[in-house]
Amino acid sequence: MAAALLGYMSSVARRDPVVREASVPFLPPGSAPVRVLIASDFHVDEPDMPPSRLAGIVQQMNALEPDLILLAGDYMSEEARSEQHYTAAQAVAPLGALRAPLGVIAVPGNNDHGVGIAPFAPAFARAGITWLRNGHVRRGGLWIVGVDDRYSHHDDWTAAFAGIPETDEVIVLTHGPDLIPRLPPRAQIVAAGHTHCGQVVFPLIGALSYESNYGDRYDCGHLKENGRDIFIGAGLGTSMAPLRLGAVPDMWLVTLTPKPE
């Protein structure tokens, strides 16, 4: 029985990610909709997320034809369980095939800091991906604010927001959701990961942990809090063990629509 359960959990961890969809009124009246694809927690590692599997997921992402792609950290794993470790360059390389008219933007996660953050900037530069650590960019009329990882104490949202007009609403991309209560009200959309939606969620018992100081407040999915839309992905890879139960791999396709006039 135990072996069968472990085999099932291993197969769930290797499934193609589910694409979850939502629509958020965010753009000025009369604007054309913008499709934003959010993915997190890649954890490129053996046995469940070799670069070849990530390359296949990238094809799935491109097939959705997003206008903008946001990557919310943890491209590698810092754990000893790995059957084969990869370099930052090897982990990031498949992401270089991502295509979106407004570009691809990435922020670090706690595991990326754990393995050593320095190689990621050149790796993302080679992949043609914008790498944000407490900074921001303007894409298609949208402010994208990238805040570094709070879990590993590298976040500085005030620096990330510096220079953006006070009246402008923004999209915040960060790894972990524990940053959310600190953000100003104009952070109207937040994209994050880190929780893995529990990764292993037992019937009746629930998840053993969401790795958050707020418990299950920011556990998973499309959440709304104080008028803010929050997207917490289950991630693509795994942490601690290459197993999933009750929390399949996923990514979010969020369509930004015009606000009513």
Automatic annotation (TrEMBL):
A GO cellular component annotation in the UniProt record: membrane
The UniProt record lists the keyword S-adenosyl-L-methionine: no
A GO BP annotation: lipid A biosynthetic process
InterPro entries: Calcineurin-like_PHP (IPR004843), Metallo-depent_PP-like (IPR029052), Metallophosphoesterase_sf (IPR051158)
UniProt KW keywords: Hydrolase, Metal-binding
Domain Calcineurin-like phosphoesterase per the UniProt entry, residue ranges: 35-197
GO molecular function, one term: UDP-2,3-diacylglucosamine hydrolase activity
Protein name: Phosphohydrolase
Native organism: Pacificimonas flava
UniProt lineage: Bacteria, Pseudomonadati, Pseudomonadota, Alphaproteobacteria, Sphingomonadales
